[in-house]
């Protein structure tokens, strides 16, 4: 109700209402100022309304007072029940769980005002599902209420949960939801054989390695907890058989290890043990998780249809495989004593079977048409095997062929194939982001991986960072690059796709070193710019190279002239007596001529000559030794020389290797001192050179030389 102090009750004041909801939700009596709601209000729809009221003069229509604003709040009542927005719920809990094991937490929402009264105060309770489960009335957490609930007894539980407002008091509104709880399996049950004795009949013609029967132990557990391993207990006949586990049916497949002979032995008995593969140590107290049964096998001599080696065949072939390609084979055997041959054929039912053919003798299955995985991804048909000796005896097996997709093209780098790096780049800087493209029609979720090739992974220049979103970044690994040292870098990047078979390719990214400013903006990438800081033009470089070549030619000519001049100085004239003596000496082997005679051994065999002077070069001086101490005994040397002279004079074809040449110039430090008869006496007067004239024409020049020297000797007494 609105009232103005100026209203005297005589009808001169008129009340007006404006604002949120005026005229539609609320109305006002213009005379009395009473405000009425003209329709139902919902706090959850709009919790308050803002209105403006004013009193005006009825006659002048002028406001008597300023306009006033007021707010009408909608008071909440409990008109909304709690609701489970996420229901119905699905939960699971392991079987044999202890009391109080957590299962699930439910939550109900009440739209009423939680600050006013208990309209939004929710309490949880179980209407259906006791005594197996319990719920916390405040939090809504569901827990197990009974111990050792067995999945094999009951696996599914449906629990009805109620949420009630007003704190659960009488008159409160309630909402319900359903929780479906499943007990998951644990290995709490050992395998058990349904009977203690299994009887099998086996034809004596069964082949070694073939399956002759199946036995099964029952394990009420599920999944891997129900996996069973079978073993034959050593005993009578156990060495002739073997048993394996069929991973699909968990049956024990008994196979033949050795041939059977009906005439030799008609029955075998042995025991088989079945045990769980995955044990749960919490349940060891239940007992041993294994069981034993007896198997009796009777050997029969009877005619039977062929037996396939497998109960079902699954094969795979790639799409677009050439026609006639063998993709697999089925095998059936005749286990009778007659061992008849087997023929195979496809059990035709529809046109799909025409995509394949089978070899009637070998049982090999081949493609008859090109296969398209996008059209048909799996083929299912039957193969029939019959005996040649009795075609009425047939057996059938189901064959499933899965068509595999072919990944034909490797991924490649999307453009660009060339990028650049600044000379002032820092380590870890991303210079290019690359992506890959694949020509194959890649399936959803195709992923590309990027990495450096093996030869580039050890180089400290660049690296590839795979972002794992089909992109990769090229990052620098060095602190700066120099265009003078290397202008271009070639980075081999290996890209692999995720299809089968995996395709990969090596793509080379060319990285050019460029000059950049401090902000990383490229200023120049030209090759000519590399040489600008040197300050030399191309013509100047050519001139420098020409000067170097000319200097090298001058040095070579100078060295050649020096060698020629040195060679000329070593050449001598034939008219020079000293040269004749030297040439004569060089013809012999001298003291180094061990083939002729070792004069050192002649004088003193135990003394080793320390310094041997080469006889193939010119000595430093041409002067003959004049004053030497006389040899102790020259007779034996003269006799030896004369003997060698006679031998060489008799042989006209022998070169002048006589030992006289070696004694003409001995050098310094000879162990035997001077062995020559020339100038070997104490005084020149005691030496007679006339015998040189008797040695023949080869010593004529030597005889004339010493004869002339003797004639000009002023000290000689005639």
In short:
Helices cover 11% and strands 31% of the residues. Its main location: membrane.
Radius of gyration: 60 Å
Question: What's the overall geometry?
Answer: flat
Q: Please report the number of helical segments.
A: 6
Mean pLDDT: 79
The CATH superfamily of the domain at 412-524 is known as: Cadherins
Q: Which fold name fills CATH's third level, the topology of the domain at 412-524?
A: Immunoglobulin-like
The major beta sheet can be summarized as: 5 strands, mixed
The number of distinct β-strands equals 37
CATH class of the domain at 412-524: Mainly Beta
Q: Helical content, roughly?
A: 10-25%
The helix-and-strand class reads mainly beta
Architecture blueprint of SSEs:
Layout: E1 13-19, E2 26-28, E3 35-37, E4 48-57, E5 68-73, E6 89-94, E7 102-105, E8 123-128, E9 133-135, E10 141-144, E11 156-164, E12 174-184, E13 197-203, E14 211-215, E15 228-233, E16 241-245, E17 252-256, E18 267-276, E19 290-300, E20 307-308, E21 312-318, E22 326-329, E23 332-333, E24 342-346, E25 356-358, E26 364-367, E27 378-387, E28 394-404, E29 412-413, E30 418-422, E31 430-437, E32 449-452, E33 462-466, E34 471-476, E35 488-496, E36 504-516, E37 522-524, H1 538-570, H2 577-587, H3 599-603, H4 635-650, H5 660-664, H6 700-711
Parallel strand pairs: 6-12, 13-19, 21-28, 30-36
Antiparallel strand pairs: 1-4, 2-3, 4-5, 7-10, 8-11, 9-10, 11-12, 14-17, 15-18, 16-17, 18-19, 20-23, 22-26, 24-27, 25-26, 27-28, 29-31, 31-34, 32-35, 33-34, 35-36, 36-37
Q: What report would you give on this structure?
A:
With 718 residues, this protein is mainly beta. Helix content is 11%, strand content 31%. It has 6 helices and 37 strands. Strands 30, 32, 35, 36 and 37 form a 5-stranded mixed beta sheet that branches. A 4-stranded mixed beta sheet has the order 6-12-11-8, with no helix packed on it. A hairpin with a 6-residue loop joins β16 and β17. The longest helix has 33 residues, at 538-570. The radius of gyration is 60 Å and the shape is flat.
């Amino acid at each position: 109700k609105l009232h103005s102090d100026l209203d005297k009750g005589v009808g001169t004041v008129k009340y007006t209402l404006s604002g949120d909801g005026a005229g539609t939700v609320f109305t006002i009596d213009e005379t009395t100022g009473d405000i009425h709601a003209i329709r139902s209000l919902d706090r959850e729809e709009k919790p308050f309304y803002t209105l403006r009221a004013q009193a005006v003069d009825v006659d002048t229509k002028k406001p008597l007072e300023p306009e006033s604003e007021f707010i009408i709040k909608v008071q909440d009542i409990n008109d909304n029940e709690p609701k489970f927005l996420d229901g119905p719920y699905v939960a699971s809990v392991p079987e044999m769980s202890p009391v109080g094991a957590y299962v699930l937490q439910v939550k109900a929402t009440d739209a009423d005002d939680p600050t006013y009264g208990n309209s939004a105060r929710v309490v949880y309770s179980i209407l259906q599902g006791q005594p197996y489960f319990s719920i916390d009335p405040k939090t809504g957490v569901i827990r197990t209420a009974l111990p050792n609930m067995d999945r094999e007894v009951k696996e599914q539980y449906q629990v009805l949960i109620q949420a009630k407002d007003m704190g659960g008091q009488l008159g409160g509104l309630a909402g319900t939801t359903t929780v479906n709880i499943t007990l998951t399996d644990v290995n709490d049950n050992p395998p058990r054989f349904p009977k203690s004795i299994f009887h099998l009949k086996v034809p004596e013609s069964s082949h070694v390695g073939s399956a002759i029967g199946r036995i099964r132990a029952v394990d009420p557990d599920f999944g891997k907890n129900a996996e069973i391993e079978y073993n034959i207990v050593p005993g009578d006949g156990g060495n002739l058989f073997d048993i394996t586990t069929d991973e699909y049916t968990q049956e024990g497949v008994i196979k033949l290890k050795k041939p059977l002979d009906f005439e030799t032995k008609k029955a075998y008995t042995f025991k088989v043990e079945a045990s769980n593969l995955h044990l749960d140590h919490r349940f060891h107290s239940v007992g041993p998780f294994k069981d034993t049964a007896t198997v009796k096998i009777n050997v029969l001599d009877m005619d039977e249809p062929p037996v396939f080696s497998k109960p079902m065949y699954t094969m795979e072939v790639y799409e677009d495989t050439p026609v006639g390609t063998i993709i697999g084979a089925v095998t059936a055997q005749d286990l009778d004593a007659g061992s008849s041959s087997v023929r195979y054929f496809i059990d035709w039912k529809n046109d799909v079977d025409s995509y394949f053919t089978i070899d009637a003798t070998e049982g090999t299955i081949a493609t008859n048409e090109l296969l398209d995985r996008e059209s048909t991804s799996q083929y299912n048909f039957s193969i029939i095997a019959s005996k040649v000796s009795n075609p009425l005896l047939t057996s059938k097996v189901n064959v499933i062929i899965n068509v595999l997709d072919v990944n034909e093209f490797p991924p490649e780098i999307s453009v660009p194939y060339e990028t650049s790096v600044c000379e002032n780049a820092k380590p870890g800087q991303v210079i290019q982001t690359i992506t890959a493209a694949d020509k194959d029609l890649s399936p959803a979720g195709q992923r590309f991986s990027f990495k450096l090739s093996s030869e580039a992974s050890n180089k400290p220049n660049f690296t590839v960072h795979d972002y794992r979103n089909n992109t990769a970044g090229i990052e620098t690994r060095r602190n700066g690059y120099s265009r003078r040292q290397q202008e271009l870098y070639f980075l081999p990047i290996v890209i692999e796709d995720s299809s089968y078979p995996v395709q990969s390719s090596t793509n080379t990214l060319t990285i050019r070193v460029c000059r950049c400013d401090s902000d990383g903006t490229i200023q120049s990438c030209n090759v000519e710019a590399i040489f600008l800081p040197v300050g030399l033009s191309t013509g100047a470089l050519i001139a420098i190279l020409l000067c170097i070549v000319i200097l090298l030619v001058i040095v070579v000519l100078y060295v050649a002239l020096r060698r020629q001049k040195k060679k000329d100085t070593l050449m001598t004239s034939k008219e020079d007596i000293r040269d004749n003596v030297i040439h004569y000496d060089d013809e012999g082997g001298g003291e180094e001529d061990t083939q002729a005679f070792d004069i050192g051994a002649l004088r003193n065999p135990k003394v080793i000559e320390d310094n041997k002077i080469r006889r193939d070069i010119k000595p430093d001086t041409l002067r003959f030794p004049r004053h030497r101490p006389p040899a102790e005994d020259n007779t034996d040397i003269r006799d030896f020389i004369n003997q060698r002279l006679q031998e060489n004079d008799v042989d006209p074809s022998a070169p002048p290797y006589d030992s006289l040449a070696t004694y003409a110039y001995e050098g310094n430090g000879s162990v035997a001192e001077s062995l020559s008869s020339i100038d070997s006496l104490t005084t020149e007067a005691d030496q007679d050179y006339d015998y040189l004239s008797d040695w023949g024409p080869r010593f004529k020049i030597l005889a004339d030389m010493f004869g002339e020297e003797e004639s000009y000797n002023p000290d000689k007494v005639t």
